[in-house]
């Protein structure tokens, strides 16, 4: 399984993540939970995946995070525990 990549993201992807976090009002508390998960469980599958944090979901594909979803939005791919 690849490791999730946060550094050196393509500029458009990085901007998309910033925009979605702001648009979907991802809180600092949410971002701390994301950071804690990232530091301890950063393995992700090769294809589409998502991690449900309760108040939001992080979706990605392979090593790249792709977007944030709100709690009630449906995610596609393999659920990461």
How does the SSE layout of this entry go?
Blueprint: H1 11-23, H2 28-40, E1 48-52, E2 56-61, E3 64-70, E4 78-80
Parallel strand pairs: 1-4
Antiparallel strand pairs: 1-2, 2-3
Describe this structure in words.
The protein is α+β, with helices and mostly antiparallel strands. The chain contains 2 helices and 4 strands; from the N terminus they run ααββββ. A hairpin with a 2-residue loop joins strand 2 and strand 3 (64-70). A 4-stranded mixed β-sheet has the order 3-2-1-4. The mean pLDDT is 91. The longest helix is centred in the N-terminal third of the chain and has 13 residues, at 11-23. It has helices at residues 11-23, 28-40; strands at 48-52, 56-61, 64-70, 78-80. The protein has one domain (11-72).
β-strand percent reads: 25-35%
Which bin fits the share of residues in helices? 25-40%
Q: Give, in order, the helices and strands.
A: HHEEEE
Secondary-structure class: alpha+beta
Q: Domains counted in the coordinates: how many?
A: 1
Distance between the termini: 14 Å
Gyration radius, rounded: 12 Å
Strand arrangement, major sheet: 3-2-1-4
Overall strand count: 4
Structural features:
single chain; 81 residues; 4 strands; 26% strand
Nutshell version of this structure?
With 81 residues, the chain is an alpha+beta fold. The protein has helices spanning 11-23, 28-40; strands at 48-52, 56-61, 64-70, 78-80.
